[in-house]
Amino acid sequence: MSITTASVLALSLCSTSLIFAFMLQKMFMFIMIVYILLNILYTLILKHIAIVDITIISIGFVLRLFAGSAIIGIETSMWIIIVTFLLALFLALAKRRDDYIHFIEGKKVRKNIDGYNLEMINAGMMFLASVTVVAYIMYSVTPDVIARMGSDKLYLTTMFVILGILRYMQLTFVYKKSGSPTNVVLHDRFLQIVIALWLLSFYVIHNMS
């Protein structure tokens, strides 16, 4: 596909998406515009700046959360927004760790990798893992979340969050398999079981209340 064809196709798809977004919900369309502009800036400039690159990736996940909230008309808890941002940062740093290992092995990687080193990445992941768990606990005991779930036992699901983060750290630090978060989730049976139990725990808690 030529650059001209790709550009025309991209512009057509973006325009069509924004039209449908406007028809669905004006706020949804506004979020989409911000998301598209942010991705363009990331592709052209921001992905080359260490720390800024993973921050933009994380903001992208938060924008998706806002988009879903706008469509279904349910206000998003501030704590789940914080959890989403922190967890996305954690996963992005894990991927940068994989990139840095390839870098020290002499393989070709992204240009901004010299803005990272193992000490900084390891410390950052430890910090983010801890803060993410705390933020999730705060989410689970928020009054509006308790009211929505009809139970004050949501904090019990924290154990699965902790197990999931520990497993991902094991895959990152021990097995060095954090290059693709998507592949990790799709192929790691341990994580799949933890995620399934986490989702099941919501159902059980909600129906036992």
Total helical elements: 9
- Taken in chain order, the helices and strands follow as HHHHHHHHH
Query: Would you tell me the structural class of the helices and strands?
Result: mainly alpha
Number of strands: 0
Please sum up the structure shown.
This protein has 209 residues and is mainly α. It contains nine helices and no strands.
Describe the structure.
It contains nine helices and no strands. The protein has 209 residues and is mainly alpha-helical.
Map the helices and strands.
Elements: H1 3-24, H2 26-44, H3 52-72, H4 78-104, H5 118-140, H6 143-149, H7 158-173, H8 181-187, H9 189-208
Helix pairs in contact: 1-2, 2-3, 3-4, 4-5, 5-7, 7-9
Key traits:
209 residues, mainly alpha, globular
